[in-house]
Predict the 3D structure of the following.
Amino acid sequence: MSAPRADTADEHLTDWFEAVPGTRAYPAPETVAAVAEPQPQPRRHAKPPTRPLPRADVRPRATTNTPPGAVAFYIVSVMSLMVSLDTSWLFFRDHLHIDNVWIRTGMFTVLEVALIACGIGMAAGVRRHDRPGSAQLSAWALCGLSGYMAVVEAGPIDGAARVLLGPALGMVMFHHALGIEKRARRERTGMWARIGREIRERVLSRLGLSDDERDAARRTRDRAARRVAALSLGRRVWFRESRLARALSAANVAHDDTMRSVMLAELATRRHAGELAALDQPSPWTEPRGEHHRRIAR
């Protein structure tokens, strides 16, 4: 009996809303339920993570692989420390009078460990900033201290040998290794380096030795094929027939179709070079934009 009563109440309430002006119609219960029910939200696709674009003022980070040529110099620089270790051991025993073997063992390597620390700092500076930094001065100062120890221990002649075969040799080898790493990681971009590379490329190109993915035999045949065209069209050529026969043989035009095409193309180009100025061509100023370049590319 309660259900009809509820329906009657809903009907009366709806009639009242419709009778009163300025009020909205009473929504049906199923409409209220539909509005109250949470609607499923559309699934958003996750955007793939994007990598930040590199800035123009940030230099690309260099690789950390040590060149093979630098490894040998590193090995020699470490081996040279053995001479310095022997000098330090004798100096701590004879002149600093440290007779306890255990104490001397813990103290005599202080100079060599400091040299290794300076070497690590120099390598880090070169790899980051292309400069060894202040660690280089400390390393040379330690080399001077090791030289003093060697001279005091073994005299001026034997001490000089200990210095040259010990820390001095190690520093020179270490500098060679850092130079190889520096050249391998970053190409030189100075003005004189660019001028030197440009002169080298021009000389090699003039000699026919530029790197254009051709082997020596192909370069020789190309030059011979062009020489055939030059000898054939020359006005005054001494020993034309013999020189022409040698050039044809060097170009291998009798057995190589590619060289024959190169030779004929060179000959035709040289023969009709006078007609190039009178060649009838449409003006590039009256053609649509880009049409001139597309026609030339075809």
